[in-house]
Structures are given as structure tokens and as C-alpha cells.
Specification:
The complex is a heterodimer of chains A (339) and B (290).
Chain A (H helix, E strand, L loop, with lengths): L3 E5 L1 E2 L2 E2 L1 H17 L3 E7 L16 E6 L8 H15 L3 E5 L4 H12 L3 E5 L1 E8 L6 E12 L4 E6 L6 E5 L16 E4 L2 H4 L8 E7 L11 E5 L6 H14 L2 E4 L1 H5 L20 E5 L5 H4 L7 E6 L12 E4 L2 H15 L2
Parallel strand pairs in A: 1-4, 1-6, 4-5, 5-12, 6-11, 7-11, 14-15, 14-16, 16-17, 17-18
Antiparallel strand pairs in A: 2-3, 8-9, 9-10
Chain B lengths: L3 E6 L1 E3 L22 E3 L1 H16 L4 E7 L5 H10 L3 E5 L9 H15 L4 E5 L10 H9 L2 E13 L2 E8 L2 E8 L2 E5 L11 H7 L3 E2 H5 L3 H9 L4 E5 L19 E7 L8 E3 L3 H13 L5
Helix pairs in contact in B: 2-5, 3-4
Classes of the chains: A alpha/beta (339), B alpha/beta (290).
The structure holds flavin-adenine dinucleotide.
The site of flavin-adenine dinucleotide has 30 residues of chain A, from α6, α7 and α8.
Chain lengths: 339, 290
């Protein structure tokens, strides 16, 4: 009762990164609230999956293993989770803000008549006083998210309904092992008794999912290009610099929209959130939606011909000039100095 | 095989291009200054419905929107593009509704408009970006949902086939009807206004708008009933007042903050060789790179 639950997505046979990030955050919240952390894993061939979860400090793994449960479809996952929530009465339940989490969580919220906040970028425990009634609440989950195209940040609470439901953006929580020797327990769910035939009305006929190719999220250095790179071939110089200094190439949305880079490389509110030790922004103006995905970087270098570009004010180094000039110089001097 | 399709759409402030005139002096957004538009992904949804109408004779496309009186603008916009009818779900009681309360009201309106074969909406609205109202409405209607549709491939023997757009690929699914489908922005753009339909519907008005109209107008509407856009109030759909508006919304906004730009002391460098050389040396010496 009253524990924190994380729905764990399965991707290519393993627990998805975003779910591990949520477990890491969930453990911190559980410690603060002095409750347990529980995981729900639903899929097929889940033998030993709990071993990848225990190090995150998971106390109980609810496992539903059945060939009909992978790949994901909405209704069976919804039925299983809804029933678990009714029985276990979690205080908080977290989902990744992925195509699965954002399909599933609203349906669960509607069925339990609970409040749900989409696409959170931060979660904090705090108190709340209802304006009208003056009623005070302790230990609520602050669900913090950008709204209005990223121009404002809203803090949302669900004072009355439980669980407090949130979907959380991939990459904003750090993936952190709690203890490699942590041991929890598995509860195997008797799947058949949780499901009805009508849960299987939607059938998957075909699926063409590409394996994850680019993993900019875990790159220690990111060389990101914006619209100011001017062309796709301008990006080639960024690839050269990135591979030289051991980084990955990222991009702004304007650069992706212009066809300079793949969507998978997009950084920001509608792309990936990154926190590398070095972020080089080349020809990026630094709109709020872009900064939302990179402002936690340890060091930022901005290269821009506009001294007033907003990105400059969060940069540690600002180089004023033409990217086409400066990137080759960086390549040249890196080669010289690193010898 | 005529279908009855209900398209859900919302009028939203255009948050995509917050121009200089929409900025207040303190750097915050003046929402009133943003133009009100047809939510972009709802236009993709409308297009999918209109394509089904072309494919399956006798199909009827009904646009349903919840919002203030002026949201009738998007109903007219839908009529100009080929929708057959529009309903405006409007009531003071709905003010302050979160997604749960909104989906409750919308689901009751849909039940009122039943029977239906399909409910189609955009994936999400750009003012909130929650993507929750679609799935929540499906749950309340007790029907299945298929989200992120890129293309409705066809309907045969009461079975619909849909291509979905996911993060790293596509999925093709089938489902019996009725079904709720949310449409992804990667779906084909909506057709533009049809000039004949524009002439036909440009004088269409909601019941509230008619109250302020001239005698001539009222006569025109009497002669041409298709020009009246129907309104549905909370009472018309029998809502439980406790379940809409602020009281029906479990989520509460605790705080709204404007995004302020954090400020760092930055080192300003020129594009001269000396500066770049020193920078690269510093980065290597500090083990940031290399
Ligand atoms: C809801 C919503 C979500 C969004 N999500 C994202 C997101 O996830 N990620 C994202 O990045 N954006 C996002 N955007 C878009 C964002 O608002 C900006 O439009 C975008 O980030 C701008 O990209 P940019 O900086 O590359 O282009 P620009 O703003 O055009 O900036 C280009 C910069 O390059 C400089 N420049 C030009 N030529 C040169 C040169 N030769 N040498 C040096 N500098 C040069 C210019 O001075 C300028 O500062 C979103 C917008 C909305 C409304």
C-alpha cells in the first residue's frame, strides 16, 4: 500500500532506458517518503528480467509474462495495471512519456478517475494548500512540466486522487544504480485471470521498428548544429569534429526540419534531453525549446555570429564568428594540441 | 457502406511562433495576442475523415469541438473543407476542466451524437501537448483506441486497418469498429478550403451568434437550416456538474512560472586563431576533451 510504482517498458528484450531512469528517480522519492519502490513489467519471455531491476532498489517486481503481451497493445496492459493499482493502491505511479506511456497512462487515469500530468521534466515532493478550502496537503508529488510551447513551466498537483500519475520525459532523470547487491521479490501475475477476450480486439499486422542507431543521450560530448550551419554538408564538419573528440552530433529542430540531420539527433523539448560534460552549439540561437533539452550540460560552448543569441547567456565560452570558419580551426588545433 | 465519423478538434492559441508582438515587456508571453487557430494535428485528423468520406459513399463527417463561442470559427473552417455538420459543446460550467473532465464532457456529447463508427482526433493540442483527451475519451466510451495514426488504410467488413507512426518506425494494426483514432502530425496535411463550400457555409452561425445577428440573417438561417451550427450545453448532455470544470478536475495548477534565462559568466572569444588555439588547449588540459 502507498508505494511508488514504475511501469517498465520492454524494448528489444530489455527494460527501456526511460524506465530505468524512472526507477532511479522513483527510488529517491521512495526514500524521501519512506515507502517501497515497485516495478510492473508486462511482456513476453521475461525470464530473469528482475535481475536488471533490483540494482535500482526495486522491492517488488510485478511480472506479467505471456506471448500475447508483446509487442505492446493498449488494452491488455491497461487491464493488468488498472487491476494492480486497484489492489495495491500506490501513492505515485510513473510512466515514460514515450509512444507507449502516453498511450497507456491516460487510459488508466480515466479508468481510475485519477489526475495525470503529461511529459514531466521534474518531480519533487512538497506541500500544497487548496486555495478555496484552505485544506493542507503534505507529501504531494509536484509534477513539473513545460507548457504553452515551452514558454512557461507549470507545477501540477493531484491533491485528492491516488495514484498521482505522471508521464516523464526520457533523459531528464539520471540513470543511477542504487546498490548492486539489492534484492527484491517477484510477484508473478496470473495473466489469464486479469484479461478478457475483448482486450485483444486491436491486432498488430505488421511492425517495422528500427534498432536504436544513434545514442546521443549517453554521449559525453555533443557537437550540435543549428540552422546556422547552412547545409547538410556543413554538418559533415561537425561529424568530423565529433568523431575526433569522442562525441556525437546533435541538432536543433530548425536544422532537422531543414534536412541537415536526422530527427533522432534533435535536442530539446520535442527531441532528446541530454546532459553531456561538454555541449558545443554551432549556429544555434538557443530558443527555450532547445535549451530545455541541453541546459543541464556541464560545459557549454556557443559558436554564433550573433553576439545577442540567447544561447550565449548560458554558455561558458562564446565564440563570435562564422561556424564555417571556426569549426575547421577547432579541428586543426585539436589535432595539434592532442598529439 | 456509409460511415458516421465524429472528428474532435480544438481551437488553440498559436504557440508555435511566438512573435515579438506577443511578448510583454517583462519577456513573458501575452496569450491574448496569439492568433487562435485550428489545432494542427486536428486538421490532419479531419483530412483522414474526409478521405474516408470520398472512399465510402454515404459517409457523414461531424465536427465536435468544446470551447467558447468563438470556437465556432473552426467548425466553419471544417465545413469549408468538406465536413457535413458541426457541434459546439459550450458551457461556463466547463471552464477550468483538465483532460479528465474534458474527456468526460466530450464522451457524453459523443454518446448524444451516437450512433458512430469512428471518432478521430489529433494526437495532441499545441497549447497543452498532453495527448490525453483521445485515450481518455475512448476509455469513457468503452471502445478501443489506436493512437499516432499516420494513415487509415481502409475499412472492410467492419474492420479498420491503420498505419501508426512510432518513435523508431511504423506499425500496422487492425481493429473492429467503433474505434477512437488519434492522428499524428506526420499524416497528410489537410486539404484547403473548397470555394463552393466556402460560399455555401460562410454565413453559418451558432445559435448564440444568431442572437446578435440582424433580421436578414435570422431569415436566411430559417430558409437554410444547414447554416445553423448547433450548440450543446452541459444540460443538453446531462453532465454531472461535479465532474466538469474545476471540481471535476483532479489535477490542480500549483504554480506557473515564466521560463527565465539562467545567466552564466561567459568567456567571449573571437574567431582568431589564437583564441581557438587557446580554447582547445584549455579543454584538453582540463580533461574536458581528449
Ligand atoms: C512546441 C515547440 C517545440 C519545439 N521543440 C524544439 C526542440 O525540441 N528542439 C529545438 O531545437 N527546437 C524546438 N523548437 C523550435 C525552436 O523554437 C526554434 O525555432 C529552433 O530551436 C531554432 O533552431 P536554430 O537555433 O537552429 O535556428 P535559428 O533560430 O534560425 O538560429 C540560427 C542561429 O545561427 C546563427 N548563424 C547563422 N549563420 C551562422 C554562421 N554562418 N555562423 C555562425 N552562426 C550563424 C544565427 O545568428 C542564429 O543565432 C520547438 C518549437 C515549438 C513551438
Amino acid at each position: 500500500m502507498n508505494n511508488i510504482f514504475v511501469y517498465c517498458e520492454i524494448d528489444e528484450g530489455a527494460v527501456a532506458d526511460v524506465s530505468l531512469e524512472l526507477l532511479s528517480k522513483g527510488k529517491k522519492l521512495a526514500t524521501e517518503l519512506n515507502c517501497k519502490l515497485e516495478a510492473i513489467v508486462i511482456g513476453s519471455k521475461l525470464d530473469n528480467i528482475e535481475k536488471s531491476l533490483y540494482p535500482y532498489g526495486v522491492d517488488i517486481v510485478h511480472k506479467a509474462d505471456d506471448t500475447r503481451l508483446y509487442p505492446y497493445t493498449t488494452l491488455p496492459h491497461c487491464s493488468i495495471i488498472t487491476r494492480i493499482f486497484k489492489e495495491e493502491k500506490p501513492q505515485i505511479a510513473l510512466f515514460g512519456a514515450t509512444s507507449i506511456g502516453r498511450d497507456l497512462a491516460p487510459r488508466i487515469a480515466s479508468s481510475l478517475r485519477c489526475g495525470l500530468t503529461a511529459d514531466c521534466t521534474n518531480l519533487v515532493i512538497g506541500e500544497y494548500t487548496e486555495n478555496k478550502t484552505g485544506k493542507e496537503y503534505k507529501d504531494l508529488l509536484y509534477q513539473i512540466r513545460p507548457a504553452f510551447g515551452g514558454s512557461i513551466i507549470a507545477t501540477i498537483v493531484n491533491p485528492e486522487t491516488r495514484p498521482q500519475l505522471a508521464t516523464v520525459r526520457e533523459g531528464v532523470m539520471k540513470n543511477e544504480i542504487f546498490s548492486n547487491s539489492y534484492k527484491g521479490e517477484v510477484r508473478n501475475i496470473k495473466v489469464a485471470s486479469y484479461l478478457k477476450d475483448s482486450d485483444f480486439i486491436v491486432k498488430i499486422i505488421d511492425r517495422q521498428i528500427e534498432a536504436k542507431k544513434i545514442n546521443i543521450k549517453s554521449a559525453p560530448i555533443i557537437v550540435a548544429g543549428g540552422y546556422g550551419m547552412g547545409s547538410k554538408s556543413g554538418f559533415n564538419k561537425l561529424f568530423e569534429l565529433a568523431s575526433l573528440i569522442g562525441g556525437e552530433v546533435g541538432a536543433s529542430r530548425a536544422a532537422v526540419d531543414a534536412g541537415f540531420a536526422e530527427h533522432e539527433r534533435q535536442i530539446g523539448q520535442t527531441g532528446v534531453t541530454v546532459r553531456p560534460k561538454l555541449y558545443i552549439a554551432a549556429g544555434i540561437s538557443g530558443a527555450v525549446q532547445h535549451r530545455a533539452g541541453m541546459d543541464q550540460s556541464a560545459q557549454i560552448i556557443s559558436i554564433s555570429n550573433d553576439p545577442k543569441a540567447p544561447i550565449n547567456s548560458i554558455a561558458d565560452y562564446v565564440i563570435i564568428g562564422d561556424v564555417n570558419d571556426i569549426i575547421p580551426k577547432m579541428i586543426k588545433y585539436y589535432k595539434e594540441k592532442s598529439k | 457502406m456509409g460511415l458516421r465519423i465524429i472528428v474532435l478538434a480544438k481551437q488553440v492559441p498559436d504557440t508555435r511562433n511566438v512573435g515579438k508582438d506577443a511578448m510583454k515587456e517583462d519577456g513573458t508571453v501575452n496569450r491574448g495576442a496569439l492568433p487562435a487557430i485550428f489545432n494542427p494535428e486536428d486538421l490532419n485528423a479531419l483530412e483522414q475523415a474526409l478521405r474516408l468520406k470520398e472512399k465510402y459513399a454515404g459517409t457523414e463527417v461531424i465536427l465536435l469541438t468544446m470551447g467558447p463561442t468563438r470556437a465556432s470559427e473552426i467548425i466553419r473552417e471544417a465545413l469549408y473543407r468538406g465536413a457535413d455538420k458541426g457541434y459546439l459543446l459550450t458551457d461556463r460550467k466547463f471552464a477550468g476542466s483538465d483532460t479528465l473532465a474534458t474527456s468526460y464532457a466530450i464522451s457524453l456529447a459523443i454518446k448524444k451524437l451516437a450512433p458512430y463508427d469512428l471518432v478521430i482526433s489529433g494526437r495532441q493540442a499545441i497549447d497543452g501537448d498532453t495527448a490525453q483527451v483521445g485515450p481518455q475519451t475512448a476509455e469513457k466510451l468503452e471502445i478501443g483506441q489506436v493512437t499516432y495514426a499516420e494513415e487509415i488504410l481502409g475499412i472492410e467488413n467492419n474492420k479498420i486497418t491503420i498505419k501508426r507512426r512510432l518513435e523508431r518506425g511504423i506499425e500496422v494494426v487492425s481493429s473492429p469498429l467503433p474505434l477512437l483514432v488519434t492522428v499524428h502530425g506526420s499524416a497528410p496535411a489537410c486539404r484547403t478550403r473548397n470555394s463552393k463550400l466556402f460560399m455555401k457555409y460562410k454565413h453559418s452561425k451558432t445559435v448564440t451568434e444568431l442572437q446578435e445577428a440582424t433580421e436578414d440573417y435570422i431569415k436566411l438561417q430559417k430558409d437554410r437550416p444547414y447554416l445553423t451550427i448547433e450548440e450543446l450545453s452541459a444540460a443538453d448532455i446531462n453532465v454531472d456538474s461535479e465532474m466538469v470544470g474545476l471540481s471535476g478536475s483532479p489535477t490542480k495548477v500549483k504554480k506557473i512560472e515564466n521560463v527565465v534565462l539562467a545567466h552564466k559568466e561567459s568567456k567571449i572569444l573571437s574567431d582568431q586563431d589564437k583564441d581557438i588555439e587557446n580554447l582547445m588547449k584549455e579543454l584538453i588540459d582540463n580533461h574536458i576533451i581528449g
